[in-house]
Design goal:
Chain lengths: ~650, ~675
């Protein structure tokens, strides 16, 4: 890129001015969630119908700069773009209308005509598509009003969901690549490291290690070949933060990598994306190509003597490849198994060279830090955990979706304010129904009611026996069996274990066996002791992070839900009736006629009730023989 | 203030030397033998077994094998936590292990059993979680039992890092992870060269040599069979280790006595046959040297090396000596001679060889070493371990036996034949002979020097008459492969190259007694050199019984010698070199090969082929080019691959290829 300064500014200007040539912009969310709900069909129909109605539709901004033909009715020009994840996944498919800022929710293909008639042609909102709060029935116009968005602090995700990720010009128009330019032309590698270190950007992949420190260590290593790797393997089930960033604002990641490369002295990088994210792969490939074409990647970046290019590598379906040494083995074409650390990647990484690996979100944050400076960045968040964190909020919560909040926000705010509250088995809002929130995926632990006011930041959570992890938040109501939760995660880690070290390979298998015993009512006190000891050994002795954190869900639930474990083991009951083997039959009060037959048939007198009145099974006494189920003539027991 | 770096192990201050890792330092200097499964000083650090964990202040639980000793480190080797982790790891392995210890062939030497006892394991808290896998008996030399595998990876790493073969590796994940050949094939069907070092490093009975003990008992018990045995040089300096003796102790006499007690009719010495090999090979060498052809001569007595060359370097098969190995020469000679002497037929003679080697089992069964009626030159091969176990089976107190001597005529050997067991021995023996023959003088001590930077490669220069002979001695197949490549590329000027698959030579063969002692190979080697010195003759040239044998055989290297004592090799390259000819003829001036193997095909080689053909069509140039579509050029990482007049173009595309083609045509 020759004379980059002008060129970036030119593109920026042209694009911004170009936007003025359009009367309207429609942004259809094309993140994976909305796509699977049909947003692409909506997009197609919108295009067709708008054209039919005599408007000129561009799928990408075509009218750059200032249009000289001022006779053209600007209102007849519409840009119809696709964005990355807009975040409010519970309410998708989402369609946003500019300039009004209407956010249409749960849009269906049949709604397209309405949108055209009322909004495009008559400038009026389609009321029934606006977001209505379940709590108070109020309607909200768009992102600037909806509480879900209002309470967040979308900075890394700012561009995600509003820009077209396949148009590099739009990214540039919002100051994109200016931070990279600054790093290459106005800062030394040491200075870049210093800014990031000063900003105390902590790794967003789960480790929380200060990125600037890592960069500096890698920078100091001698050698003329170094690598930057972006870890986009995001294996936690239920986590989709990195996916959304890669789909929705891939250039943030590329720019972050460029700055990292400048900082450590690398000329080559890899983005490792799991192949189960085909849309992310596609978008990131295109983004890299576009950046190359524009001369931002390749030789002589910004007119300097430095070069940097990026390879895309697709993961082949192994959670363990999210571990940095296993990831590097995978890139090298070897079996994805981890290696003992030290040596750390900063000293001996990819192909034995000094390597810096960072998480997607960490890298996407970097341009912002260089742009606004460390002090400004630290204004949000806490002192030891500055900045924001994205979370995938899921589970028994009203508003599931992709959120971003300042670190230090409390769980209460996240779940009840942004999340809109806890739902019960039937989906109704019932905030008393909150039992726990699983945070950090299969490596994480649980937090309960007593933790609701703890600030969510790296260190506070570790103190509470959990961890921020990658950002998966699963809210659970009272109908959740915590042992089943522990089992779910243990099953996952067991299947994903690479098999190299004996503690993880055999240990997780045996732990799963023990958990099965508990849920099948075959456990005794020894089971719990064994489980605890085994968990501790696996945690301390395993080779890599997968093994070391695999016992966390079990150990955390054993600590916080001791009573529930005890009930399974000693009373042979599952208090929430989720474990089939331990489930006590239930009498449906609406069907029971009070005929007393079941009470008479019960061999252990575990059923009580007056004649003509609804009967009740006493859980602690029930031996699960099933006699009452057979005896009932009204099918009232299941 | 000294510069000496120190650290603290269990609160005792210890100096840091040049130890590679904390584990070695602790073992050598802190009087603690840290338990390990997967650590092997010759292999890369793996870190899987978790047995070597220690507690390092400020770092917590770390594996000592992967930790560099650092100044000021505070290390504890047996805190409660550490002990619990080790115990847990062992219990978990046991839960996944086939615990048929009393009948397991490895029970005496099994590391798992030893460590369980050492760590005082009283129970395994965990129920068995066994994968019921089938045994792999497909190989002639080795048996795999996955139910006893602890997944330490030593076999995988040895086969890949030292031998450069990589016949076995990890497959599948987690609980299902196992060590198998590629795509689940049987070991006998893949590139395994039978060196057996995987079995030698295996801490349990998951891989072990295939047994022929029962077969041998059967023929020894059969009075109608005349059973003779030959003992390889390396066996005599190692067998004592199974009976409480030091490696290197010479037990030849006891061995002969023991074998007679087992019931062998005659006990002979492979070293005799080695002398014979020296004669044939040295003459072959001198002939090639005079003609200036097929040099360097590669030795061929190591069956693993032969299979390796057949599979990976078939281009140098003409360089391999056509001589059979001493084992096979012995079999061939003795069956013919003894049958005559005893006035019987070869069917009634049985030859059993006792070898330090597992590959010899494969060698004895090669098609080339059976006659038209299926009679083998060597009927059975027993490893040192197997014969030692036979002695134990009958309760023999080996160490108390009075020595006896070999039978004649095949029991008389010179020192030259004995040193075959050491790396460098074969070359030295051949050169002793060659020197005597050409100059009528004894070979002076040759200085064989290590080549710096080249693992396992040593070189020497000897003056013979007025010629300078350049000798290379290499051990370990990966190293041998490198030498073979250099020879193929014309980068060397060696005259003679000796190759041994096992680092250290046959004394370190996989059939030798299991011994994890450091320095055992060196001691065994020294033992053999000692035997050499105490022999009345050092030069195969002087062996009177060899001379006599030639009365039967005729000329050295003559017709009968060729029939009995020489062999041919097979090209076993897996990937066929012949391609499909698209068009063109051999006289066309330009030759192009396009690889259409899967990787190149997927990357677009077929399109390149079409584009080239179209181009040639358009400009009527078809008669200038001979085009062939070939199979895998084994450069899959740089696909697509095209070869134009011998030059490989990798990562090719139509533009690149057409441009180069145009230049070539013009």
């Amino acid at each position: 890129m020759n004379n980059t300064m002008n060129t970036l500014q030119d593109i920026k200007q042209n694009f911004k001015q170009g936007l003025d040539n359009y009367g309207r912009r429609i942004i259809v969310c094309a993140g994976t969630g909305c796509v699977s709900s049909g947003s692409l069909d909506i997009h197609k129909k919108l295009q067709k119908k708008i054209e039919e109605n005599g408007y000129e539709v561009d799928l990408k901004l075509r009218k750059e700069g200032v249009e000289t033909d001022s006779e053209v009715e600007e209102n007849d020009n519409v840009i119809l773009s696709k964005s990355g994840c807009q975040g409010f996944c519970q309410m998708g498919p989402l369609v946003e209308i500019q300039p009004e800022g209407y956010l249409y929710t749960r849009v269906e293909v049949d709604d397209v005509d309405k949108i055209i008639e009322r909004t495009i042609k008559n400038d009026e909102p389609v009321e029934e598509l606006l977001f209505t709060s379940r709590a108070d029935g109020e309607k909200y116009k768009g992102r600037d009003e909806i509480p879900f968005y209002e309470l967040q602090s979308r900075s890394v995700l700012k561009k995600c969901g509003s820009i077209d990720p396949e148009d590099i010009r739009e990214y540039i128009s919002l100051n994109g690549y200016e931070a990279a330019e600054q790093a290459y032309t106005k800062m030394s590698p040491k200075e870049v490291c210093e800014v990031v270190e000063e900003a105390n950007l902590r790794g967003r992949g789960g480790g929380g290690f200060p990125a600037g420190v890592k960069w500096n260590l890698t920078r100091k290593e001698e050698g003329d070949k170094k690598y930057v790797i972006c870890n986009g393997d995001e294996g936690d089930p239920g986590a989709f933060m990195d996916r959304s960033v890669l789909e929705g604002t891939p250039h943030s990641v590329i720019e972050g990598m460029m700055i990292a490369a400048r900082a450590i002295g690398a000329d080559e990088g890899y983005i490792y994306v799991r192949m189960e994210y085909p849309l992310a792969v596609k978008r990131v490939r295109k983004a890299v190509e576009d950046a190359r074409e524009m001369g931002l990647l390749g030789e002589n970046i910004f007119g300097t003597e430095h070069s940097f290019d990026i390879n895309i590598m697709e993961g082949a379906g192994a959670f363990v490849c999210g571990e940095e040494t296993a990831l590097m083995n995978s890139v090298e074409g070897k079996r994805g198994m981890p290696e003992p650390k030290p040596p750390y990647p900063a000293q001996q990484g990819l192909f034995g060279k000094p390597t810096n690996i960072n998480n997607v979100e960490t890298l996407a944050t970097v341009p912002m830090i260089i742009e606004q400076g460390a002090e400004k960045y630290k204004e949000i968040g806490t002192e030891d955990s500055p900045g924001t964190k994205t979370f995938a909020l899921t589970g028994h919560v009203v508003n599931t979706g992709l959120i971003e909040v300042p670190l230090g926000t409390t769980l209460r705010e996240i779940i009840f304010d942004i999340g809109g509250g806890v739902t019960d088995a039937k989906g109704n809002i019932d905030n008393d129904n909150f039992k726990a929130v699983q945070i950090g995926g299969p490596s994480g632990g649980c937090l309960t009611r007593k933790h609701l006011d703890i600030p969510v930041d790296f260190d506070s959570l570790i103190e509470a026996g959990a961890m921020v992890g990658s950002g998966g938040l699963v809210v659970m109501n009272q109908d959740t069996c915590m042992i089943q939760v522990a089992k779910f995660f243990m099953k996952f880690t067991q299947e994903e274990s690479c098999g190299k070290c004996v503690l993880c390979r055999e240990g997780t298998k045996q732990m799963l066996n023990l958990l099965n015993k508990i849920t099948e009512g075959k456990a005794d006190q020894n089971t719990l002791t064994k489980l605890e000891k085994l968990g501790q050994a696996v945690k301390k002795g395993s080779l890599c992070g997968l093994g070391k954190t695999a016992p966390n869900p079990v150990l955390s639930t054993m600590d916080l839900f001791e009573e529930e474990y005890r009930a399974h083991v000693e009373d042979n009951t599952c208090p929430v009736n989720e474990c089939d083997a331990l489930s006590v039959p239930e009498i449906d009060p609406e069907e029971c006629k009070g005929c007393t037959i079941c009470a008479k048939e019960c061999p252990v007198d575990a059923i009580e009730g007056e004649p003509q009145e609804v009967h009740r099974i006493i859980a602690e006494d029930c031996i699960n023989c099933g006699t009452c189920i057979e005896a009932c003539k009204f099918n009232a027991i299941s | 203030m000294s510069d000496q770096k120190t650290l603290y192990i269990n609160n005792k201050e210890i100096e840091i030397g040049d130890e590679r890792n904390l584990l070695e330092l602790i073992r050598q200097k802190a009087n603690i033998d840290i338990p390990t499964f997967c650590y092997h000083s010759d292999l890369s650090v793996y870190g899987a077994c978790r047995m070597c964990v220690v507690d390092i202040e400020g770092q917590g639980v770390q594996t000592s094998c992967s930790t560099e000793p650092q100044d000021g480190m505070q290390v504890k080797t047996h805190t409660k936590e550490i002990r619990e982790i080790r115990q847990m790891a062992l219990e978990l392995i046991l839960a996944n292990h086939d615990k048929s210890c009393p009948t397991c062939e490895k029970s005496e030497d099994c590391k798992l059993r030893q460590l369980s006892a050492q760590l005082g394991l009283e129970e395994s808290r965990f129920p068995d979680e066994l994968n019921d896998d089938e045994l792999d008996m497909s190989s002639e030399s080795l048996v795999r039992d996955p139910n006893k595998c602890v997944l330490c990876g030593d076999c995988v790493r040895y086969c890949s890092e030292i031998q450069g073969v990589g016949a076995i590796d990890f497959a599948y994940r987690g609980d299902n992870a196992k060590v198998i050949p590629a795509f689940g094939h049987d070991l006998g069907d893949v590139e395994c060269v039978n060196c057996g070092q995987c079995a030698a490093v295996c801490p349990t009975g998951a891989i072990h040599p295939k047994h022929e003990t029962q077969d041998v008992w059967e023929i020894v018990d059969d009075d109608d069979q005349f059973v003779v045995t030959q003992i390889a040089p390396a066996v005599r300096v190692a067998i004592g280790e199974m009976f409480g003796q030091e490696p290197g102790e010479i037990s030849t006499g006891k061995l002969v006595s023991a074998l007679k007690m087992i019931g062998f009719d005659q006990v002979y010495d492979t070293s005799f046959a080695a002398d014979l090999t020296v004669v044939e090979e040295a003459n072959e060498f001198l002939e090639r040297k005079e003609a200036g052809e097929d040099l360097p001569l590669f030795t061929s007595c190591c069956p693993s090396w032969v299979k390796y060359a057949e599979q990976f370097h078939p281009e140098i098969l003409d360089n391999l000596s056509s001589c059979k190995s001493p084992q096979q020469m012995f079999g061939s000679l003795s069956k013919k001679v003894l049958a005559q002497k005893l006035d019987t037929t070869p069917e009634n003679i049985k030859v059993v060889s006792i070898m330090p080697c597992t590959a010899k089992k494969f060698e004895a069964k090669r098609d080339e070493f059976q006659d038209a009626n299926g009679i083998k030159e060597v009927d059975h091969v027993l490893t040192t371990q197997e014969i030692g176990k036979m002695f134990k089976e009958i309760g023999l107190k080996f160490e108390n036996l009075a020595p006896e001597s070999f039978d004649l005529p095949f029991g008389f050997a010179t020192g030259g034949g004995v040193i075959f067991g050491n790396t460098g021995g074969v070359s030295e023996a051949v050169l002793r002979y060659a020197t005597k023959k050409t100059t009528d003088q004894e070979l002076q001590n040759i200085e064989v020097e290590e080549v710096r930077g080249e693992e396992g490669l040593r070189e020497a220069e000897i003056e013979l008459a007025d010629e300078n002979l350049k000798l290379a001695v290499v051990h370990g197949l990966k190293n041998a492969g490198k030498v073979a490549e250099r020879v193929k590329n014309g980068e060397t000027n060696y005259d003679l190259v000796e190759v041994m698959a096992c680092p250290g030579g046959c004394v370190a063969g996989a059939g030798q007694p299991i011994n994890f002692q450091n320095g055992k190979v060196k001691k065994r080697k020294e033992g053999l050199y000692k035997v050499d010195k105490t022999k009345g003759m050092q030069n195969s040239y002087d062996n009177p019984f060899i001379e006599k044998s030639y009365d039967e055989i005729g000329d050295i290297g003559g017709e009968i010698a060729h029939e009995m004592l020489h062999t041919k090799y097979q090209d076993r390259k897996r990937i066929v070199d012949n391609g499909f000819n698209i068009f063109g003829n051999e006289e066309a001036p330009i030759e192009m090969k396009v690889c259409v193997g899967t990787s190149c095909y997927v990357q677009g080689s077929q399109k390149i082929l079409h584009d080239v053909i179209n181009y040639l069509d358009r400009y009527d140039l078809k008669d200038r080019i001979d085009i062939e579509a070939t199979f895998c050029m084994e450069k899959c990482g740089d696909s697509p691959n095209i070869v134009l007049d011998g030059t490989v173009i990798s990562e090719a595309d139509s533009d690149k290829v057409l441009k180069t083609l145009k230049d070539r045509i013009d």
